[in-house]
Structures are given as C-alpha cells and as structure tokens.
Amino acid sequence: MSQFTKSIIPVAVLVIFWFIPAPEGLSVQAWHFLAIFFAVVVGLIIEPVPAALIGFTGISLVAVFGLISDSAKANISWALSGFSNTVIWLIFAAFMFALGYKKTGLGRRVSLIMIKYMGKSSLGLGYAVAFSDLVLAPFMPSNTARSAGTIYPVANNIPLIFNSTPDNEPRKLGAYISWVAIATTCVTSSMFLTALAPNLLAVDLINQGSGNLISWSAWASIMLPLMIPLFLLTPWLVYVVYPPTQKTSPEAPAWAAKELEKLGSITKKELLMATLALVALLLWIFGKSVGIHSTTAAIAVVSVMVLSGIITWDDVISNKSAFNVLIWFASLVAMASGLKKVGVLEWIGSGAETYLSGLTPTMLILSMLILFFVLHYFFASTTAHTTALMPIFIAIAMKLMTPEQLLPFSILLAGSLGLMGIITPYATGPSPIWYGAGYISQARWWGLGAIFGALYLAAILIGSFIFI
C-alpha cells in the first residue's frame, strides 16, 4: 500500500461517517465524535504517520469542532486531560527503568547468566531465554524493549555458534529459540500489570468505564495462577511441537561465560538499578497500604536513577520512545473517555443489551472473551485494539454482568492482551523483530500462532470458570 493510499484512507473514513445520518438514539455531536474515533483507529492500524500524531490530531479535531461541550475551555480541558493521567506517567517512568537496564548492562548480564547456567541443552536454552524475559517483565512495560531490545541481541547470537542461520539449518536451533522467545514474552506480558503498556492503558479505560480501579496485586491474584503454569509449559511445548534438531548445546554456556568475562564484575550502578527496581516493585504491590501511589513510587525511583547517575537528565529528555508513548497514550485515553462523555458507550451498551440479554451468564462471558481475543487478527497494534474495543466491551459488560462478575471479567479481558500477541507476525511489538530474524517462515508462524493462540485463549477461558 502506497503512502498516499495510507494517508487518504483515514480521511475517507472520517468524511464518509461524518455525513452519514446519525443513527437513532445518538446525537449528531456524538456521531461526529464517533466518526473521528473511527478514523483514529483506522489510522492506528495502517499508520500513515506516527501513531502519536494520529491520536494528537484526533483530540485536536474534537476540540476544534467543539464535540465534547459548547464551552471552548471544557473542550481543551478534555483534550489535554490524558496528560494528567497517572497511568500515562507510570508508563513513561517505566520506560526510564528500561533505559536503566540497558545503560547499566544489567539486562544483558541477566540473560547471559541464565544461558551460562541453564543452556547445556536446547531445552535448557529455551528456559534460559524464557526466564531472562520473566526477570525483566515486571519492570519493563514495553515488551518490544524487553524482548526485542534486550533479549534478542543476546539470544540471536546463540544459533550462530552452531551454524544455524536462516539459510542454513534454521530448525537446528534458531527457529526454536525464536519461537520460545516470542511465545514466552506474550505470556509474561499478561502475567504482570506492568509488563505491557496496553495493560496499563486497558486498566485506565476499565476504571473510566466501570469505576473499578485494578491494582497491581488484584491483577496478580488472577493472572499469576493462570500464567505461571503456562509460562513453565511453553518452552517444553515448543520443544515438542516445533523441536530443534540440535539437542545439546555445551558451547552456549561457554560462550555466555566469555561474554560475562568481557562485562567484568557487577558494577555499583547495576546493583543500584536492581535495588531500585525491587523497591519500585514492592511499592507497586504494597504501596497503597502505606499511602504511596504506584505512579508516585515510579517517578520517585526515576528521580533517584537520575540523581545517582544511572541515567542522565539528557537521557530522560531525549528519550523519544518514552515521549512518543506519553503523547500517544494521553491522546488515546482522552479519545476513549470522550466516547463516554458524548453518550456513545451508553448507546452501544443499550443496543447490546437487547441482542445479548438472552444468553446465559456463562455463555456471555465466554463469547466476549473469545471475540475480544480473535478480533486481534485484524489489528497490527495491541494499543489500537485496546483503544477501539476495550471501552465497548466494558460498556456491554456493565449492562449485562453483576458487579461481582465485572471485576474478574475485566482483569481477564485486559489480561488477554499480552497473550493475543502470539497469533500473527504483526500482533505485538517484538513479533516483527523475531519474525524478521528469518528463522520461521510466514506460513509456519501463522500455524504455530493458531496452535499457541488456542492454548493461550484456553487459559483465559479456564480462568473465567475459576474466578468469575
């Protein structure tokens, strides 16, 4: 698709929906807002320009046309409301954690230690890659930074030791490691609230739509019992379903030991980074009991990171990825809140109630979880998926579920966001990196994605029987 075509499609969507008469029960103002929302979602999917600019343009158009209120001040207050959102700043702070791991070399050291002590067999290497991701996951809400930025540079060197390349015996080791890496990062992305940025976005949208504020510990109480067995099973299951032809790998620990020698002894900054990450995690889990908000803990730790020299202030203000996500998510949070303000969510919920009220509670919950998961085949961005569908699904759940059902359902719905990244080569941030390594063909990736996607979805559905 040409750049011009990509650019014209969102505009065409906006114009077409804008001039279609508003459906019964929805005001013209609300319909025009929905037209802009549809255009933003389409733009996020095909990305004719950076995603942050798409969201920023969306809130600008809504404010210019005065679709939220007749008051100009109320419109601009709404447009900028996402920038005061605590979740957005938690995500921003966590990007600084990722930078600290990279600058100190702690992330690389963790991966090499895992390979040194677990990598004597191919299966052991799979678990080494998996546990490297697990150790970093609670502190890195970008699975792209974690898997593609930290794990990939280390893990991608391992197959080369055995002369396994995309063009020469990819199944010897490279294909196995690639699939274990992407499969386990999808599991860890769902395991912890802070392991995937869209998790935090989803939690904020759930809070806006239902009033339920999901804490780190509430998320863990449901997702950890489901994800720990899945995490432990994944490298072994890949070994069975898509086995490497190289079964032993004594060279890998030796290579990792040499790389660790090059790194030298662990530094004071690495130890401090590990300590600060642990402090942040403890405050995310227990901070509420001592009156410390999770975002307060995050920005305080970032301040210490800068003051102690782990990262510099120039690192903070020049971190394009962090500021890009801040603007992007702040815009999307505002757009999603606008759906409720103009009455779109109430209208959708009422319409869904008419069609779905005949389903049993169990069938309703299962149907919504399956549909939310499967619809990700049409999205190349977990963030776009979250923005487009989470407010709608929560609006329907508000109409048809009891308060006791709503909270665990919301956690399972948001918790599926990481898992659904396994289904296609474009489903989550690290996927294009591991797919681009060239060890797994597109047809094989789709096939494995269907198998593991079904397994991962089954874990969520089992969770609905246990927790709802």
TrEMBL record:
The keyword Transmembrane applies. The chain crosses the membrane at residues 7-23, 29-46, 53-72, 78-101, 176-201, 213-239, 271-287, 294-313, 325-343, 355-378, 406-426, 446-467. It is a multi-pass membrane protein. It comes from Malaciobacter halophilus. Keywords: Membrane, Transmembrane, Transmembrane helix. One of its GO terms (cellular component) is membrane. Belongs to the SLC13A/DASS transporter (TC 2.A.47) family. DIT1 subfamily. This is Anion permease. One of its GO terms (molecular function) is transmembrane transporter activity. It comes from the Bacteria. Its main location: membrane. The keyword Protein biosynthesis does not apply. It is found in: Membrane. Pfam families: Na_sulph_symp.
